[in-house]
Specification:
Blueprint lengths: L18 H8 L2 E4 L11 E6 L4 E5 L5 E2 L2 H5 L11 H9 L16 H5 L23 E3 L5 E3 L21 H5 L8 H7 L1
Antiparallel strand pairs: 1-2, 2-3, 3-4, 5-6
Helix pairs in contact: 1-3
Length: 189
């Protein structure tokens, strides 16, 4: 995983973030949930990049994208499974919180506006700290508590307790629609 103490090229001040996430937060992209190509399909989004290329992102189960990066480079050897387009969709819709320590002035303006999606970006109240098992929460204007996702290799909440064929409440709330793979959870512990 590529991490940067400070990513000055993109103008985003971070402590530790993967380069695809930096690009998802700073590059100009338009995320559309109701475009004709994806209208009426649960979990499908159309992403138009700053170069004008268009990709379809499916976030219903595990985020997937039609871009060449997702097709040829993922998953990475360090476990990264999502491209910048899928990350952008999860950030812009609030499925994944934007780290609290990210310089908000460096974020791409369309990300913060979330004009073409039903959700809205969420900022974590604090950073995901410690060994990946400490998760802080934030409340939105309606008082709904949203959880920051601890990246334990399978991107599940730290208090994941999936058993059987359905995801646990904590995973459902974080946007997962399938249960965590038990072997992946055990490997994280």
């Amino acid at each position: 995983m590529s991490t940067y103490a400070t990513d000055r090229k993109n103008g985003i001040d971070v402590e530790s973030i993967e380069r695809r996430d930096v690009r998802a937060l700073t590059e100009c992209m338009t995320v559309m949930e109701h475009a004709p190509e994806v209208a009426g399909a649960d979990g499908l989004f159309l992403v138009v990049t700053q170069s004008g290329k268009t990709y379809t992102v499916d976030v219903l189960d595990e985020p997937r994208c039609t871009c060449p990066d997702a097709q040829y480079n993922l998953p990475t050897t360090d476990g990264r499974r999502t491209c910048k387009h899928a990350s952008r969709v999860t950030y812009e819709t609030g499925m994944r919180p934007i780290p609290a320590w990210v310089n908000r002035d460096a974020l791409e303006s369309q990300l913060l506006e979330a004009t073409h999606v039903d959700g809205e970006p969420v900022f974590a109240a604090g950073r995901v700290a410690g060994d990946g098992n400490d998760v802080e929460t934030d409340s939105d204007e309606r008082g709904t508590t949203r959880r920051a996702i601890a990246d334990g290799g399978c991107d599940r909440p730290a208090d994941c307790c999936c058993v059987g064929e359905l995801p646990c409440f904590m995973c459902w709330r974080a946007g997962f629609r399938t249960p965590a793979d038990e072997s992946a959870r055990e490997a994280d512990e």
